[in-house]
Amino acid sequence: MAKSAYKQIKLTKLHPNCQDESPLNRWLYCLSVVQYNDDLMKKKLTRDKARIKNLEEDARRYIWHPFTQMAEWEKEPPLIIERGKGVYLFDVYGKRYLDAVSSIWVNLHGHRKAAIDRALKNQIDKIAHSTLLGLTHRPAIRLAKKLVALAPPGLAKVFFSDNGSTAMEVALKIAFQYWDHRGKTGKTKFLSLINAYHGDTVGSVSLGGIELFHGLYSPLLFPTYKVGAPYCYRCFLNKTHPECRLACTDEVEKVLSQHHDEIPAVVVEPMIQGAAGMVTWPPGYLRKIRDLCTRYDVLLIADEVFTGFGRTGTMFACEHEGVTPDLMAVAKGLTGGYMPLAATLVTQEIYDAFLGEYREFKTFFHGHSYTGNQLGCAAALTSLGVFEKERVLSRLQSKISALTEELKPLRGHPHVGEIRQIGLVAAVELVKNRTTKEPYLLEERRGHRVAREALKRGMIIRPLGNVVPLLPPLSVTIPQLRKMTSILKESIQAAT
Ligand SMILES: *Cc1c(COP(=O)(O)O)cnc(C)c1O
Q1: Considering the entire predicted model, what is its pTM?
Q2: Would you say the CB of residue 197 lies under 6 angstroms from ligand 1?
């Protein structure tokens, strides 16, 4: 007791307010300081709690959230994220969560990646933004060069924008205008796939084919040709792969052979339709589409907004089948999940069709205020550097196998219809009845229930109807991957 009191007295020596020379008085003073600090701490905690409560109220009062039924959202406590580190997110209470949705499919190297943090700090010491309308800048130049080097051979020019939807708008306007410049003016109806998702702007919604998201807007949309997409678990032709010999491509060929004069481009999400429920394609489908486009003189637009930058195990999904599209849109992972930045890559041939005297009006009249933002380009450049320095793609292979292995035990589950995977994207399609493949009613919100169970266990996922995707950042370690799959399994068990 005496000893600790003495220590306390010594401590107070540091305190400038304690001037009294008497040891007893100093000791008493010290006790009061301790008590005072304790009170202060308690007050601070109370104040912090009150602040968070206010924040939660304001969260409900002011924000309208994307893809969210707000009447339901308002009933649940809002999850307010304050910081992140690696594959973890932390809320305002300090609670930790696994980010198994990669902050909606964008994060690659984890949160607070030191190299990207540094690049952004360095860039902000120079400038945050300057326009690409007429001017240019070092990060954009270096990034464009790098993208062309990495992209499937043949893609030669980069048009920047700021999100996936705009990258797709750019692609479809360029494709249309390209044919116009070549004197083919009747090419106005794109061919896209059922269940496709290409973004939420009106042009990209016109290409989309998810009834729930897009159906209501149909009076606003321009007409397109829509063809059934490969979904082997629920084949729209009621066939089985591989005996079907890709009969679904015959549907594409049928439309192309009859209408190629009207079709500027075929638009696809290569290898996997993300928002459709992580529906993976059978081998050969993408290759066949490429060949058909070439045969019927129609452009191929690859929407790699989701699949780009290692998500499927290769840098771009088109590489799985050695395909070069004529136009390619990238966004989500471009900056490693740091900044809103997007790009549309095109071939030299397409670019050249826009060259001419100003009075010919072949200019591509399109551009956004934040096109090619300097901070975004700096983050993207560094993210691509991380791929090289840390050999991200080769180190991914063992994680991909581990993910496959860890999900195997779910196969026998009575409510697991199919487990799909490509690269580090996995998804479990839940069904009411495994034998008949009868789906749960969407109103039952089974996917959402799984997500809520996962949240209780410290993991964030976002369902797509009855499909529960697992989409960790590429930097995830195998033990973290095991933790994620084990939470997923428990959550499915609890929710079905
Ligand atoms: C997310 C996504 C888009 C839209 O990108 P945003 O940045 O959300 O506008 C387009 N296509 C695909 C395949 C996507 O997954």
Answers
A1: 0.92
A2: yes
